[in-house]
Amino acid sequence: MLGKLRPRGFGGTSGSNSDHSRSKKQRIADVTKILLSIAKESADWFPPLESALGGVTALIERYEQPEDVKDKIRDLTPQLDRLKQTITTTTTEGDPEEVGRREELTSALKEIEKRSRELLAKGTVTRLVNKKGDSREVAKLVEWFGEAIAHYRASEKSLAATSETHPRGQILQQQAIYDQIADLASSFNTLLKLHEKSPGVKNKLDSVMERLDRLCSEEGNDDGLWDENDHEHRIKLFNTLRLIGDNGDVLYNRINSQGYKECQDDIQAASAMADDIRDAVTDYQMAQQRAMYDINRRLIDSADLSVLNSCRRARGAGYKHGDRKGCLGGTREAVLNDIESWARDFEKPPIFWLNGLAGTGKSTIAQTISEQVFANGLLGASFFCSRDFEDRNDLRLIFPTLAFQLAHKYPTFRSVLVPLLRSNPDIAYESLMNQMGELVVKPLKSTDVWTIIVIDALDECKDEEPQSAILSVLGRFVEQIPKVKFFITGRPEPRIKDGFRLPLLVDSTNVFVLHDVQPSLINSDIRLFLKHELSEVARRRRVEGWPSDEHINVLCDRAGGLFVYAVAAIKFLDTSTLLPERQLDAIVNFPEHTVHEGKTRFSPKTTLDSLYASILKAAFGEENPEVDSKVRSTIGAIVELVNPLPPPAIAELTGLDSREVTQFLTLGQSLLAFDKDSSQPVKPFHKSFPDFITDPSRCTDTRFLISPKILHLELAMNCLRVMNDGLEWNLLSLPDYVLNSEVEDLQTRIDDRISDALQYACQSWHSHFTETEGDVAGVISHLRVFLEEKFLAWLEVVSVLGAVRGAIAGLEQLIGWLQEVSGNEELLDIARDYSHFVAVFSEPISVSATHIYHSALELSPLSSIVRKRYYCQRHTSLPRVIVGLGESWEGGIVIPSKNRCLSYTWSPCGQFIAMQSREAVEIRDSLSFELLSTLKLTEPTPDKVTSLLAYSTDGRFIASLSGTSLVIWDIQTGGVTEETDCGGGENASLEWSLDGSTIGIMGAKNWRSWAFVVYIYDVASGAVHSHSPGKLGSADQPRPRARGTSFRAITTELDDWAWS
User: Fold this and answer.
1) Mind listing the pLDDT tens digit for each residue in 334-346?
2) DSSP 716-782
3) Domain of life, per the record (predicted)?
């Protein structure tokens, strides 16, 4: 575009006033440079223009009068820009009217060129005598240029007005509107520059016009410009721009006539105009991208789509799901501009961390950025973490979910990912390192696309690493994909901060600390938000002359820089049944005190806790023990449920009347994300509310304080009650022997016969046994009924819901709770027997609910408790096993591994088992044997080489010794932290020190003479020290045993050799 050639001071671009201090020759050079650049470029798209501009340029140099023509050149430049846009995007073929218009323009340009040559041909004496008159004629020639172009484009606009249904006319219509907007922005910038005021407004206008300019350029180069499906969106965009342009003309004339000081409000209106243009363009681009996404999805081969859908992922984690809202127009502009600048410039660091305390608006900004980069076509994938949903706080689902979205966005990415998933369908269960490498990095490297990935609220994922596991993995791969950027938000928790401080990420990360933004800017944004939202409340509630500036000032001051305070206050005022004026007066009169969010102190002026407490009191009235208990049960369920539930399910789960629950939710909806649609789940409106209501140091009113341990015990009992009431044999009326996948209407049967509350109870009851407090008698009573009467009916439901893996873990949690809390040996024996039953027969139970009876129960040992209690429920007509059944659960369970196991070890906590094959180490759940992750060896283990495994005492690392090769992995990330040659040999032993600082390896020098050597590997430094204590007097194999930071050799005859 010609606009790119405009220097500062021309065409409305921002520039300095240094022209006045330049030499005359320099000013002449500036003007001629512009015209020569335009002339050179125009040779490609309209040669007559090049000749005419060449003549005028020579005249300006000859007569040395740049000041006379500077303003005219400034006005001419955007006209030339529009001329190029029109000529390069249209054709004369089959359009005699356009041929005539161009001939007329060419004739005018030739006349300008001719007159230029005549002036240039004058002799020196003649030129000196007529210099003043000739200089005026040079200026007139420039004016003539503008008139010729204007005449050509006026005829274009006439065509647009009379041929609206013709594509050519439509293009011209839209180009005319774009011209109006562009000229308007240029005029505003010139006006603001003269007053040397409002640089922010000027920069905003420049930015939005650059974006609109880019859009029009892309549209002009689009062969399918008038695709029928896109026509409606284009018309909407340009109708909006036309309205903005018309209003803007009025605004400009008012400012220009009255002066800057008298029109401060109008200057801000100009800023709002830029926001409106940006929003209109964004809406249009988002519609375009959505259409492209739908087209891509329809083009996906059905077999490929089946493979993608089979990959486990977190549903609803993308930015488009849910009711998330972006920033209000005109707010957070500083941070948004900073992020937008980073997103456009791929020379800047590939990672952007938006660091902010709770309530500072990180997720709102992330939503806005996601929308913007999606509109620009750069958003590849997004993952909005949430502790409210079990799958959205699982680190192991982030990379598979991102890969799924990228595959739908980019066909070339999909062409690499799908074959990989076919060859390794369990890749989503492997380590984070393998996941990112195989699912994300490898396809991206092959695809070679420029894209941006958004991860919001990383701190809400469950992560036991001292340094964020996701960031640790990201640091290892980010340099391999230089065309990919990651936008990440998160609270500055230690593991997040330490993760970004990793050496691999320090230089690759741009950090923006949201809570360190200048307070005046934050307060200005909060004030704008409050004014906008309160005016909307006043309009909806029909309140005039409200609120006052004083009210807004107090609310802004009370917010203390937290947007969450402003949002909560607005929700309270808008949802209350009382008059908003009185409610606002009440908020203003709430007591002030210092608030803490977690361990982070906010501004002393912040009164967030006071606001929450006051809203609760105002919502639920005077103290009433019976009502207060029900309120705690309702709100507590919303706060502590593993996954959120809709109101009817909350009522069923808590055992309360559905009308009461609806009433409580309505009264407290200013603190909840509560939709009028009763099928939608209810969540806390912000994460800071659960933090408040479960913390006795913050929620000091015991009427509303929720004790998580007491509540979990209550929820556990309620889940058992719901299952005992709702479960029955063959609940879905499935035919004998049928596989779940063979039931065509399975999902319909589930929806019709298994309520949301029952589905939740069946999948999550055991999660509430982790931490409980209180009288367990009621729970024991319900648990006994469940185990003795409803157990197999429960397995039917978890089978059709695909939750058998969780059922095994749930039974183990129950066993742990019974051991620690209840001491009921009878129920403990039952739970152990049932756990063994599910673990042994997990595969048939997973694929068929009916095979719980046909296969699992039929093949269970004769003395098993599950068989004795439930065998009578079998159909008597079904085949029976007569001989060959065992008496008890004896022997091991076959672990479904594709590879030969060379060695194995148990984790210190006993929950995991690690097994080494020639090519990898598999980490499995010790009960369900579910594959949790795969740690790949860089080189396969040679045949006939001893392999050993050992967990570190904290369970975070695992060491593998194959021959003399020692490899150490970080278990959560799957990354290799160390790989070295470190002794060992045949019949070696491997052990970590108790503090995890060293690893002891004992190997043989000569086993025939019982000579051996001990190697001590220092994990931090990588140094290896060897010790040769001598000979053993026995063939018993020694093994190093950890003692603090040292080791001791243990044999039958030697137990006092020690090394450190």
Assistant:
1) 899 899 889 988 8
2) HHHHHHHHHHH--TTTT-PPTT--GGG-TTHHHHHHHHS-HHHHHHHHHGGGGGSS--S--HHHHHH
3) Eukaryota
Q: Region 717-746: what's the mean pLDDT?
A: 94
Q: Which helix (H) or strand (E) holds 351?
A: strand 351-355
Q: How far apart are the C-alpha atoms of 185 and 13, rounded to whole Å?
A: 10
610 with 591: CB under 8 angstroms? yes
What is the pLDDT averaged over residues 903-910? 83
Neighbours of 26 (CB within 10 A): 11
Task: Report the length, in residues, of the chain.
Answer: 1060
Q: How confident is the model at residue 224 (pLDDT cuts 50, 70, 90)?
A: very low
Query: What is residue 664's predicted lDDT score, i.e. its pLDDT?
Result: 92
Q: How much of the chain exceeds pLDDT 90, in percent?
A: 27
Kindly give, in sequence order, each residue whose CB lies less than 8 Å from that of residue 819, ignoring residues fewer than 6 positions away. Answer: 828
Angle between helices 131-162 and 47-63 (to 10 degrees): 150
Place of tokens 């095994």: 808
| 300: phi then psi, degrees, rounded to nearest 5 | -70, 130
CB 682 within 8 A of CB 635: no
H or E stretch at 923:
strand 920-925
Nearest in space to 280 (alpha carbons), one of 325, 247, 219, 238: 238
Distance from C-alpha of 658 to C-alpha of 652, rounded to nearest angstrom: 8
Q: 422: pLDDT confidence band, cut at 50, 70 and 90?
A: very high
50-54, 121-125, 599-603, 900-904: range with highest mean pLDDT: 900-904
Rounded distance, CA 977 to CA 957, Å? 9
Geometric angle at alpha carbon 540, from 537 and 542, rounded to 5°: 100
pTM for the model: 0.71
Do the strands 957-962 and 947-951 form a parallel or antiparallel pair, or are they unpaired? antiparallel
Short-list 321, 340, 429, CA closest to 381: 321
Give the number of other CB atoms < 10 A from CB of residue 1050. 17
How many Cβ atoms are within 10 Å of 247's Cβ, its own excluded? Answer: 14
In which region does residue 775 sit, left (phi positive, over 0), alpha (psi from -120 to 50) or beta (all else)?
beta
Angle (CA) 306-307-310 rounded to 5° is: 85
| Number of other residues whose CB lies within 10 A of the CB of residue 212 | 20
Is 60 exceeded by the pLDDT of residue 681? yes
Let me know: does 990 contact 967? Beta carbons within 8 Å.
Answer: no
Instruction: Please list, residue by residue across 266-291, b when 16 or more beta carbons sit within 10 angstroms of its beta carbon and e when fewer do.
Output: ebebbbebbebbbebbbbbbbbbbee
Range in 211-215, 633-637, 1043-1047 with the lowest mean pLDDT: 1043-1047
Side-chain-side CA neighbours of 792 within 13 Å: the count stands at 27
Cα dihedral: 364, 366, 372, 374 (round 10): -120
Burial class of 27 by CB neighbour count within 10 A (0 to 12, 13 to 18, 19+): middle
Phi, psi of 182 (to 5 degrees): -65, -45
- Spatial contact of 85 and 220, defined as CB atoms under 8 Å apart: yes
- Name the pLDDT band for 770 (thresholds 50, 70, 90): confident
Give burial (CB, 10 Å; 0-12/13-18/19+) of 549: exposed
Query: Can you tell me the distance from the alpha carbon of 929 to that of 809, in angstroms, rounded to the nearest whole number?
Result: 10
Region of residue 1018 (left: phi > 0; alpha: psi -120 to 50; beta: else): beta
Question: How far apart are the C-alpha atoms of 619 and 667, rounded to whole Å?
Answer: 5
Average pLDDT, the chain: 78
Q: How far apart are CA 389 and CA 847, in angstroms?
A: 26
What pLDDT score does 133 carry?
61
- Sign of the Cα torsion 566, 571, 574, 578 reads negative
Give the pLDDT confidence of 538-581 residue by residue, as tens digits.
Answer: 888 888 888 888 888 888 888 888 888 889 888 888 876 678 88
The single-letter code of the amino acid at 520 is: S
